Amino acid sequence: ENVDIVTKTDGKSGIDIFIKPGTKNESVHIPVVISKAGLQEVVYNDFYIGDDADVVIVAGCGIHNCGGVDMTSRHDGVHTFYVGKNAKVKYVEKHYGEGDGNGQRLMNPTTVIEQAEDSHMELDTTQIKGVDSTKRVTTAKLAAGASLVIREKLMTHGKQYAETDFTVDL
Fold it and tell me: What mean pLDDT do residues 28-46 have?
């Protein structure tokens, strides 16, 4: 009753998540699984966290690609967070890729954060394994008294490539 998830109506693919002001001890789970070789998508998910809320948001993205060497599967998630005054948010994101090693698995997440006064946000992101290439971009704008804690783990092996870029405006 405190969380509304609505399909976007602005022509973009994705959802809008509205968390009511004052919501406490709630969690929202947003999974994505790509299991078809060659599927490429961009998804826009906007989170509106009301004043004085205290919530956990969990996103899990997985790509399974057993396509040929010319098949690329790609998921680009653009997550925008509008964090209300005195709100507290923990965002946990896990990325994972698997397949027979032939098709490419690409994930390029973008996180945009706008925090109101005295809000707190914690980002805990992990790329577990199996993603061939990722470029992660995070931008944040913090109002007076707001705080942001970021923990990012990018695990690669072999020829996998990972790049990350942070811009925080205080």
Answer: 88
pLDDT at 8 over 90: yes
Q: Would you call 89 exposed, middle or buried from its count of C-beta atoms within 10 A (0-12, 13-18, 19+)?
A: buried
- Which tokens go with 148? 């942001």
Distances (CA, A) of 40 to 37, 70, 87, 125: 9, 13, 34, 22
Whole-model pTM?
A: 0.93
Handedness of CA 59, 64, 67, 68 (dihedral sign): positive
Give percent of the chain above pLDDT 90: 65
The one-letter amino acid code at 50 reads G
- Alpha-carbon distances, residue 100 vs 114, 121, 153 (angstroms): 40, 37, 24
Determine the Cα angle at 20 with ends 140 and 18, to 5°: 60
User: How many CB atoms are located within 10 Å of the residue 68 CB?
Assistant: 11
- Give 82-102 pLDDT, tens digit per residue: 999 999 999 999 988 888 878
